[in-house]
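Sharing a chain and its predicted structure for anyone who wants a worked example. Both blocks are below, sequence first, tokens second.
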Amino acid sequence: VMGVLFLVSGVCFVAGVLNPPLLRTWGDSLPQSVAVAAAHRTAWFTSTWLITLSIVAAVAAVELLTRVLDSDAARVGRSLYLIGAALGLASTAYDLAVTSTLLGTAILPGWYLGIADWAAGLGTAYFALLAPAALTAFGVAILRTRALHRWTGVMFLAAAMLLFAESAAFRGALPFPQFLAFIVLGAALLVRTQRTIRPNPEPAPP
């Protein structure tokens, strides 16, 4: 189950961000992004819901990972991730509840621009700060407990360092390192499960 959740989280995020009609809007100004979203409503709603589902699946996966690791470092990671995920969901909820009602508006109201910047900041706090901090804690927990392969702990630490570097360099982050790590971990867990759970061989004939 944990492997499926990590895989769903990573795949949903990548699919949401790489949605072709919206791909060129990342990094654009808010009015430009809203204008493109208005022209591609279905794609915009699909991407926003996929990113929301990605965060929800990640929360469930992180909870299961914490139970498997059962360490203080893992519990710190869970707390950091839950706080960050709550901020990320608040950001996507704002888009679904408010931005969606303004798609196609000729001139965006001033109050929206201010609050939208604040909501985007919540997403940045999750993706660029709290999530990599949580990944660091989980990476340390994996290396200490060895409940999972050591390379998964190293992968989490590497993803966290990349996200922190992005944040320092660009004051934000494209959180692909986090969700690519989730995809790799999810796939590895599913492969491990398939190798562990094998049908009993048929008894030899007398």
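Comments welcome. The helical segments are 2-17, 30-39, 41-69, 72-102, 110-145, 150-170, 176-196.
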